Structure formats: structure tokens, C-alpha cells
Amino acid sequence: MHSRANQGLRVALLALLAFALVAGSASASVVIPPADDDLIVHSDAVIIGRVTDIESHDDRQGKLSTYITIAIQEVLKGSLAQSSLTIRELGGEVGGVIAWASANPEFSVGERVLLFLDQRADGSLRVLHFYLGKFSIITDPATGDLYNDEGNVITVYDSAGGKIATIGSSGSLGSTSNGVAVNSAT
Fold first, then answer.
1. Residue ranges in the chain whose pLDDT is less than 70
2. Which of 54, 127, 143, 165 would you label with 115, given CA atoms 20 to 30 Å apart?
3. 1: in domain
4. 47: Cβ–Cβ under 8 A, 6 or more apart, which residues?
5. In sequence order, what are the residues at sequence separation of 6 or more whose Cβ sits closer than 8 angstroms to the Cβ of residue 164?
């Protein structure tokens, strides 16, 4: 009788140990979506542009960073006079070494994007609120309509409530000025 109880206890302990080992190696990121107004208010710049280059570098202290160059098509908030800018996201791949935060936005060369940007203390720019501050702009090949990567219409408004730009309808993105509100709707 004792041997069956001991055997059951051993199996339970081994299962618990196996679970602890697997759970210890898993990782996750929890990101709480901000309100649309908070995304605009807390961003230092909001741009529409196209990704032209992506490079990862090792800072020689074991920290990897990825630099994403964007050709600016429209500035919706902030004062950016240059025709392109480079943002820095933590992580990347250099020489077979990979480090990445699972909540970081992902980019592809040639991708058109709407970005809400934040300036770090060192002056470099990054996407605000991880992947929540990046929207891919996709053109429907059948209609020419523009959508974000979730199929939603995005409308950006100025502080007086006037429409600045709409992504999700045919035609141009409209005139631009410093936006302070975004409405995403299906």
C-alpha cells in the first residue's frame, strides 16, 4: 500500500518539476492598450512613411539594437524637417545572436507605416507603446483603398476636431497638421 502511494507522489513531483522547468523558460509581454487620445498626447511625433532600411548592431556591451530608417511621407504631429529618420528599437540579430522583446513592433523594408514616436533621453526615437504605436498601411489591390494591418479605418483629427487624415478610404490622406486625436473603427 505504501509503495503505490510513494509511486504516485514521485510521479506528481516529477510532473511538477517538469512543469516548473518549462514554465521557467517561457516568456511573455503584457501590453495594456492606451486610449487613442493618450497615444497622440504622449507621442513626440506622428508620421506616415515607408521603411527603407533595417539594420541591427551590437553596442559592444552585449546589447543589441535595431535601427529602422523611414522615408517620411507626411508629418502629422511634431516638427520634423528632414525627409527621413531612423528609429531605434531594442534587440535584433547580430552574428547569430538574437535578442528581442516580444512586444516590439516588427518592420519590413518597403512597408508603409503610421508611427507614433517617443524620444528617449539620448535623443533617439522609438515607437511609443511598443507595437501599439505602429500601424501598417495596406493598399487593397482590388479597390485601392488604404487600411491598417487590422483592416480598420484610421482617422486623425486636429485639436479643433477637424479631420487631418483618413486611412481606410480611397484617395489622398488629406492635409496635415499637429494631430491630437485618432479614431480607429471597423
1. 1-31, 36, 145-186
2. 143
3. no
4. 70, 72, 73, 74, 75, 76, 78, 80, 85, 114, 115, 117
5. 76, 156, 157, 158, 174, 175, 176, 177, 179
Q: Report how far residue 50's alpha carbon sits from residue 152's, in angstroms, rounded to the nearest whole number.
A: 19
- How far are the Cα atoms of 41, 49, 87, 130, 169 from residue 118, in angstroms, in the given order? 11, 16, 9, 10, 28
What is the pLDDT at residue 97? 85
Residue range(s) defining the domain that contains residue 161: 36-185
Query: Does residue 17 lie within any of the structural domains?
Result: no
Express each pLDDT in 25-41 by its tens digit: 455 666 677 776 778 88
What CA–CA distance (Å, rounded) separates 43 from 149?
A: 20
Q: What is the CATH number of the domain that holds 112?
A: 2.40.50
Q: How many residues does the chain have?
A: 186
What's the pLDDT at 179?
35
Sign of CA dihedral 175, 180, 183, 184: positive
Cell readout for 20 is: 516548473
Tell me if 40 sits within 8 A of 115, measured CB to CB. no
- Grid coordinates representing 139 are 493598399
Residue 94 near residue 102, CB atoms below 8 Å: no
156 inside domain: yes
The single residue listed with the C-alpha cell 493598399 is 139
- State the Cα–Cα distance between residues 86 and 89, nearest whole angstrom: 10
